[in-house]
TrEMBL record:
Pfam families: FecCD
Keyword DNA repair set for record: no
GO terms, molecular function: transmembrane transporter activity
CDD domains: TM_ABC_iron-siderophores_like
Species: Pseudobutyrivibrio ruminis
Protein name (database record): Iron complex transport system permease protein
First-listed, main subcellular location of the protein, grouped into a coarse class: membrane
InterPro entries noted in UniProt: ABC_BtuC-like (IPR037294), ABC_transptr_permease_BtuC (IPR000522)
Keywords: Cell membrane, Membrane, Transmembrane, Transmembrane helix, Transport
Superkingdom classification of source: Bacteria
């Protein structure tokens, strides 16, 4: 085993251990602190332990959802950064998450107002439609605006417009359940059920497998379109696949947890720095694990820092990850000047 493979192995093992520690810590802390011994007993025989219901019905689905959806959001950002060839591209910045949020809100207002039950699949489909429309607008602008910085600004403006329309919809909704969507619209894992966990796990798993299968053409595309064509890669097909995969991942996150800021931008950058490579075979699992760890930690802070009041997870991720993005932009500008 060469030194590079040893480094990758050590880093993945370290992240796996850190993820396990964060998982156990998140299960134990909250409105009621639970010891590791009680956690183990609750997982083995939840009916016989005082905190069994809290662990199995409330904390465990929320924590697993944070792991799955945080990892999915990070991989979505990584795929978008490859597509646009820009390290600050991401579902939140480009307005894709906001487009998904808008369509989920519209779907809920229309269907709940008619007394129709909304399944998890309907929410994902609505979010996917919204994300694809937002992505389509960004792509149209990309044909007009060649400057990537201006394109990102346009994406931010699209996000603001979608968020503003969503706020209007939520504010003027009559149903009390719809009004409570305000917390979801800011980003939260509160109220995640086992049904949501199972649906999101299936969708994210299939999408990640497809992303992993596409690693070779994605790696060729990273080296330039001319190189990819010479390697036999169908560029148009690959671009469509990248759009669909990233949109499905970000739509799934938005459908169940609302828009979560900066994870999709900052985590791929952190993983590139840690792994010292841009190879998709390494970066896809690394981004997933990194996104899972960071999202789980931020969710833990969101629900415990000001308990019993819970803050939105986007507020926490912005505080910790926005400086990473700023640092990345400053360093990139300094390198380009140097």
């Amino acid at each position: 085993m060469n030194s590079e493979k040893k480094r990758f192995t050590c880093l993945f093992i370290s992240m796996a251990l850190l993820l396990l520690i964060c998982f156990i810590f998140s299960l134990g802390v909250g409105s009621a602190d639970i010891t590791v011994r009680e956690i183990i007993k609750s997982l083995i025989s939840p009916g016989d332990v005082q905190f069994g219901k809290i662990i199995i019905s409330i904390r465990l689905p929320r924590i697993i959802a944070a792991l799955i959806l945080g990892g999915a959001l990070s991989v979505s950002g990584y795929l978008l950064q490859i597509f646009f060839g820009n390290p600050i591209a991401g579902p939140y910045v480009l307005g894709i998450s906001s487009g998904a949020k808008l369509f989920v809100a519209i779907c809920m207002v229309v269907l709940v107002g008619q007394g129709v039950y909304i399944s998890s699949l309907i929410m994902v489909v609505a979010a996917f439609v919204g994300s694809i429309i937002a992505m389509g607008i960004v792509m149209l602008l990309a044909g007009k605006v060649r400057n990537m910085s201006l394109l990102v600004v346009c994406g931010v403006m699209i996000g603001y417009i979608c968020s503003a329309v969503t706020e209007f919809i939520i504010t003027f909704a009559n149903d009390s359940n719809i009004v409570n969507l305000h917390n979801w619209s800011l980003g939260s894992f509160s109220g995640i059920s086992w049904e949501h966990v199972i649906i999101s796990a299936i969708i994210v798993s299939v999408t990640l497998v497809l992303s992993f299968v596409m690693s070779k053409p994605i790696g060729a595309y990273q080296l330039g379109e001319a190189y990819a064509r010479n390697m036999g890669v169908n560029i148009k097909y690959l671009r469509v696949v990248l759009i669909l995969l990233s949109s499905i991942l970000s739509a799934t996150v938005t459908a169940f947890a609302g828009p979560i800021s900066f994870v999709g931008i900052a985590v791929p950058h952190i993983m590139r720095g840690a792994m010292k490579t841009a190879k998709p075979l390494i970066m896809i699992p690394a981004c997933f694990m990194g996104g899972a760890i960071i999202t789980l930690l931020c969710d833990c802070i969101a629900r415990t820092a000001f308990a019993p009041t819970e803050v939105s997870i986007s507020a926490v991720t912005a505080v910790f990850l926005a400086p990473v993005v700023i640092y990345m932009l400053v360093v990139r500008r300094a390198l380009s000047r140097g």
